[in-house]
Amino acid sequence: MKRTQTRSVQVGNVTIGGQNKVIVQSMCNTPTKDVQATIEQIRRLQAGGCEIVRMSIMDMEDAAAITAIKAATQIPLVADIHFDYRLALAAIEAGIDKIRLNPGNIGKRENVEAVVNACKAHHIPIRIGINSGSLEKDIHDAYGKVTAQGMMESARRHVDILESMDFHDIVLSFKSSDPLLCIEAYRLAAAQFPYPLHLGVTEAGTRMSSAVKSSMALGTLLNEGIGDTIRISVNGDPCDELPIVRQLLKCCRLIDHVPNLIACPTCGRTAWDMQPVVNEIEAFLSTINKDVTVAIMGCVVNGPGEARHADIAIAGGRKEGLLIRRGEIIEKLPQDRIVERLKEEILAF
């Protein structure tokens, strides 16, 4: 699927937009001033496939921590700014790679202009984050409710300020907890703005609800060629976001170094303890960066046929399984050796 053509924006050593690639992002949930905890979380996020990470800048102590965090990590860092534009200015001086602003709560135009001037001087892009829950009061009142059109009006106001200052290193996002509103807003934005779009469903909830909402909304947009960077929001450990986004991009054929796990739902024919094997192999595959299809099948009825189409597979029997490599049975295994041998074969693939 070819991406909608957008301007390219440089964030540190990562390019957003202007290419047929979608950049994966996440956000730390550690206090940024807790430098060591934040560094450790960023490193785990990067190991899981994150390419850009955002941090909350709540006060000047958070802003001052950016310098040490940046020195100890390898991926671009984004400062998340609300209410106080001076925090953005401090983050810029500390070496941040990108600023995220919610124009609805940043205050007067001159505050935005001060941030734009500093970003322009330091060649730092700005993401204008339009959130359905924090639109300007007059826009909300004019439409009577949150609408995609109101979100466009909010974005246009703030894009106009940046463009009037000859600033074009802009990324836009239009997040809502309503997947259908997200789809409508991003479609309108793709038609109206030349800037790269950061996709996301905000406040999406737990892993299950987030996976469903995000796949519905963001999968739809990705398959229409809309979106240049993405974050899937999950309550809790941000590292839990990455397996979901990797699989979503894999399904949309936008990434090719992610394993594919096939597993049958089980039925009364299943005569071995399959679920713990599937769970352990799924967790193991989340650490693997290669294009390999692994099938774990429950019985001899469909198992061998389905497994034949995988690179590596198990077709279960009675407390045992057949290990299959590219359609050829290579070994019969007792259940207690299945996980060990599957991991060996995946690593050797």
TrEMBL record:
<dbReference type="InterPro" id="IPR016425">
    <property type="entry name" value="IspG_bac"/>
</dbReference>
<feature type="binding site">
    <location>
        <position position="264"/>
    </location>
    <ligand>
        <name>[4Fe-4S] cluster</name>
    </ligand>
</feature>
<dbReference type="InterPro" id="IPR045854">
    <property type="entry name" value="NO2/SO3_Rdtase_4Fe4S_sf"/>
</dbReference>
<dbReference type="GO" id="GO:0046429">
    <property type="term" value="F:4-hydroxy-3-methylbut-2-en-1-yl diphosphate synthase activity (ferredoxin)"/>
</dbReference>
<dbReference type="InterPro" id="IPR058578">
    <property type="entry name" value="IspG_TIM"/>
</dbReference>
<comment type="pathway">
    <text>Isoprenoid biosynthesis; isopentenyl diphosphate biosynthesis via DXP pathway; isopentenyl diphosphate from 1-deoxy-D-xylulose 5-phosphate: step 5/6.</text>
</comment>
<feature type="domain" description="IspG C-terminal">
    <location>
        <begin position="260"/>
        <end position="346"/>
    </location>
</feature>
<keyword id="KW-0411">Iron-sulfur</keyword>
<feature type="binding site">
    <location>
        <position position="299"/>
    </location>
    <ligand>
        <name>[4Fe-4S] cluster</name>
    </ligand>
</feature>
<keyword id="KW-0408">Iron</keyword>
<feature type="domain" description="IspG TIM-barrel">
    <location>
        <begin position="6"/>
        <end position="243"/>
    </location>
</feature>
<keyword id="KW-0004">4Fe-4S</keyword>
<feature type="binding site">
    <location>
        <position position="267"/>
    </location>
    <ligand>
        <name>[4Fe-4S] cluster</name>
    </ligand>
</feature>
<comment type="similarity">
    <text>Belongs to the IspG family.</text>
</comment>
<keyword id="KW-0414">Isoprene biosynthesis</keyword>
<keyword id="KW-0479">Metal-binding</keyword>
<comment type="function">
    <text>Converts 2C-methyl-D-erythritol 2,4-cyclodiphosphate (ME-2,4cPP) into 1-hydroxy-2-methyl-2-(E)-butenyl 4-diphosphate.</text>
</comment>
<feature type="binding site">
    <location>
        <position position="306"/>
    </location>
    <ligand>
        <name>[4Fe-4S] cluster</name>
    </ligand>
</feature>
<dbReference type="InterPro" id="IPR004588">
    <property type="entry name" value="IspG_bac-typ"/>
</dbReference>
<keyword id="KW-0560">Oxidoreductase</keyword>
<dbReference type="InterPro" id="IPR011005">
    <property type="entry name" value="Dihydropteroate_synth-like_sf"/>
</dbReference>
<dbReference type="Pfam" id="PF26540">
    <property type="entry name" value="GcpE_C"/>
</dbReference>
<dbReference type="InterPro" id="IPR058579">
    <property type="entry name" value="IspG_C"/>
</dbReference>
<dbReference type="Pfam" id="PF04551">
    <property type="entry name" value="GcpE"/>
</dbReference>
<protein>
    <recommendedName>
        <fullName>4-hydroxy-3-methylbut-2-en-1-yl diphosphate synthase (flavodoxin)</fullName>
        <ecNumber>1.17.7.3</ecNumber>
    </recommendedName>
</protein>
